[in-house]
Amino acid sequence: MLHFESDYTMSAHPAILQALQASSQEHYAGYGLDTVSQEAQDRIRAATLNPDADIHFVAGGTQANKIVIASLLRAFEGVVATDSAHIATHEAGAIESSSHKVLTTPQVNGKLTSEALQQVLDSWENDDNRDHMVRPGMVYISHPTEFGTLYSRSELATLHSICLKHHIPLFVDGARLGYGLAAKSTDVTLPDLAQYADVFTIGGTKMGALFGEAIVLRHRDMIASFFSQIKLHGALLAKGWLLGLQFNTLFNDNLYWNIGEYADHLAMQIHDTAASKGYSFMVDSPTNQQFFTVDHQTIERLSQYMPVAVWQQRENQFDIRIATSWSTTQDDVDQLLTLL
Amino acid sequence: MLHFESDYTMSAHPAILQALQASSQEHYAGYGLDTVSQEAQDRIRAATLNPDADIHFVAGGTQANKIVIASLLRAFEGVVATDSAHIATHEAGAIESSSHKVLTTPQVNGKLTSEALQQVLDSWENDDNRDHMVRPGMVYISHPTEFGTLYSRSELATLHSICLKHHIPLFVDGARLGYGLAAKSTDVTLPDLAQYADVFTIGGTKMGALFGEAIVLRHRDMIASFFSQIKLHGALLAKGWLLGLQFNTLFNDNLYWNIGEYADHLAMQIHDTAASKGYSFMVDSPTNQQFFTVDHQTIERLSQYMPVAVWQQRENQFDIRIATSWSTTQDDVDQLLTLL
Amino acid sequence: MLHFESDYTMSAHPAILQALQASSQEHYAGYGLDTVSQEAQDRIRAATLNPDADIHFVAGGTQANKIVIASLLRAFEGVVATDSAHIATHEAGAIESSSHKVLTTPQVNGKLTSEALQQVLDSWENDDNRDHMVRPGMVYISHPTEFGTLYSRSELATLHSICLKHHIPLFVDGARLGYGLAAKSTDVTLPDLAQYADVFTIGGTKMGALFGEAIVLRHRDMIASFFSQIKLHGALLAKGWLLGLQFNTLFNDNLYWNIGEYADHLAMQIHDTAASKGYSFMVDSPTNQQFFTVDHQTIERLSQYMPVAVWQQRENQFDIRIATSWSTTQDDVDQLLTLL
Amino acid sequence: MLHFESDYTMSAHPAILQALQASSQEHYAGYGLDTVSQEAQDRIRAATLNPDADIHFVAGGTQANKIVIASLLRAFEGVVATDSAHIATHEAGAIESSSHKVLTTPQVNGKLTSEALQQVLDSWENDDNRDHMVRPGMVYISHPTEFGTLYSRSELATLHSICLKHHIPLFVDGARLGYGLAAKSTDVTLPDLAQYADVFTIGGTKMGALFGEAIVLRHRDMIASFFSQIKLHGALLAKGWLLGLQFNTLFNDNLYWNIGEYADHLAMQIHDTAASKGYSFMVDSPTNQQFFTVDHQTIERLSQYMPVAVWQQRENQFDIRIATSWSTTQDDVDQLLTLL
What we know:
Four copies of one chain form a homotetramer. The first copy, chain A, has 340 residues and is of the alpha/beta class.
């Protein structure tokens, strides 16, 4: 059986499992107050070139999004996002369950355009009834997006400057950040991201960890009592060192980048070969997720060899997702390309 | 100064002020448990032809919407509505602040079409990821809509049957219900509404009351401990008899219908004359709210004589709202028509 | 039938009904942005000797408490109150439904002692696990208390200084404030209250209004977008001028004080006569609520002439509440005293 | 350095680390829908003798408590617990942040007595104002309690029957359940617990897992869409098989019981020796947590060799906690006993 249905079907990168095994005789302080977590935070501070960054680890992406958004917004504010944003679609109402509205605007290639953002903000500010409406209080984008696409450095800079002008924070969901940073065509580095985003996450779960997301805040005063806020959301792990240990490993010896680069490389092989065979794509993605358009017969055929993740359907046109990861092998890719 | 900017700029219908004055020497049980409130509930039960209806009074429309929706939905559910619905636009996030998502779909003439509703429900049910998505748990429409338009009896019946098939309640926001029921062109009666809606409100504030909305539930078991739920939302009025008294008055001697008929009649005079003068309309409304399309010069001119409520703008085209009410006089209308 | 069961069984003070009648031909701006509301706010600013006060009106007491507390607290904070506080007992979980804990400590004569407050605050600050605990983020007291008792000027000053030292606001629930300010034995004036409380309410409902509470904030920057926060709680009245009109009347010609003084005077007549007849009291209240201790036979006897509100029971000892108001007559009192 | 400060300072039991290592080449379905999780659920169903049990895994205890309570309660209900309950003290307001009140009553030896429970329920039911009060909607106890103490089989049966009579569920927080089930003096078996509790958790984190709690519901219809509710709380783990794998290991070959028995045995050695040396105890605990009363000098002395967890202080009397676990060795215990 081939596994291209997602990038989190397998355990963890061997380096992580090994680090875990190696730590089996250690005692750690609870709740992430241990030295390994501190070391991981230091490594991330160094990698982002922001010595003031405040870093916290939680187990999952929806959790990270929910806590960050709930902690940053005031009661009368909502979060601006595209209509394809994870927080708008696949988090079962997690943001609303924390009492905040997701103010959606149409995506373009999975992205929030600066025009769309400007329009949402202007529209609120110019409305005589704005005090009866939800105030746009922060902006959420994902990088890579839910479609695998990437913002350019200049696009991020523009979104950032719009947010700055309106005194609202820019939050970047980096659930698959490593695949974005390692993309051949990107001009966005981690320090760039850390400069343009007021808060962002560095995803572990989909990048070779067992679980875990790092939340990176621009500075320590951004969110009051963030530790307590994590706790009241039920997200404070007793053995928080588990998160520190995994990020310590991912941010050692370029592992996080290497995983991204490896998976992106395989994904582009698939993309290029498929394109040359005449397949078309839902969007042009430079990262580990590729969205093909296929017919029903192709799905039937592929399903004999692998689980097939259908993204959307328009009559007999199906967009399916192919995702590579650290655990995909060249042999897997070759088999898939033969099947296509 | 003329006043067509809304239907709630003046005190209350004389009959209501008189009833209030008349009751000044009475003692009442607190929290709506008084006999006047019971009498008002009985009158509404009679008028809706539903002896099982459970009726509660609260002070305002956003409050009624918030409490009904929060009480009917489970944590993982949202409410389906058009993108122009009051709950989606002008309630400052009241629904989300109660932890629920408003699942919007584009309006057509201010209305939710059965096709759109069907599509929202099917789309959720057919999605493999539906357990990661907000479940559509009820349907909200307003009648008249925010654009003054009305559902036909057959449209209501279809929405009702779709809801029934999916085991979710249909909630009708009747903030301006009287103007809808009294419209010349409508085929919807109050008993019809009571049959098709599982819950609906009968608006008082915009129909001549000082304040107050009646919440009408199909039967007593629909919402557990609704009294306590009203209380925990801060909406239980100590002198609840004030609400009962007003609805008792409105539902006596056809006052509620008469107010609607009177205001609709004046509104149609305005519509017909304006149309004959070449004005165009945002939508074709048969009720007390008329939305004209005018240019900037017209707004400037009118503003010398009356406050002008601009609804939306497209370059030099402005949609303005003209609303009539119980307090509008024929003389006001004549003056307005001269101005147009 | 006599009515001493509460101070809100009757309509409104004649001056309020008259003001309402007089305004029947006026047009008002919506949502409390009218000139009458502004006038009422000015009068309250003058009466409190605080020209910077930010004043908002809402319909009810639970609503006022819920909105103030939800707007002032951050997610990880709770409100300190006695275990007999209205917010801790009789608001159906309104505070918790806004996601905040009420941190209770035992009452002494219905009051929060400075020792108890100090203990709650110190206990949190000195606890190694405080980041796992709800932070005391504000203090709630009622004046008069739920038992009719009053804080002295010096007690308020001490609570205020403790709050100041801990950088948390002091909130005074003044649902029956007028009965407190007019008490013979009190040394607390309205300007005193305005000085010691960062936020307080001036109750209308129990002081002769049809409904309404004024929320008085020390200055305009205390709560961001308070208008929108009122709206999202469903508490923004379309005809907000109704609230302004009533407070305008209550704060004209000393009416608010006169009502308080009148009712307190009658209450003390009852107290003194009852005491002289050997009745004992649950607490020593100088305001319009008197809590007698009686046996079952007395309740049976009184019940033939008036509704009897039982507060608490210990075997055959019942504490019943007798409340006077603007609508109580000397004749009512004489009849009651004959019955006792 | 000795480590008795808590039972979760070390990694995981070797069997769990080994299972993790062994699974490194497997592909798993996401979100706990994998076969290993199913196997773990089957093992727990078998061990509880309840084939209808519905079992879900989440990462932490506060998370489990929050989700269970929020999912079971209606908006107007609260959860009854002792004032020492974890949900009432050390969860940073997690329950209130889900909009529910914790209705506390004084603990006796850390336990909720049937008399106290009866009193809370009767008091609400007999109160004329109960519709203005939070309804007791479920009961929370922990077993072992926060003080290490245990309910007897008959005590559980009584609490269960009271709950049954009032139609409210009994929820048992089993964060340290294994230490309770393995206690020498207990007469409570896992099937007993499963019979008396409508919902309970089986703690992994403090019983040798890296993290994880199993939530055991009496039957599948207890909580609607529990999967979505876990998701909206941000608690759905992408690699949910990690939880299944750990519980599969703990419930294989009696590992869960063996860990409990081993740690309890060491704890009782400490207890008995300390008692014979004249130490006194805060409560009489038969499980892995022992609460000693010591003076400041003793704390100073012990602190040179181990972190000391102080539970509470009364002048120069300190209650400190000594906790054993799967990772405590006989040698550790011997060293500690020498120190005492």
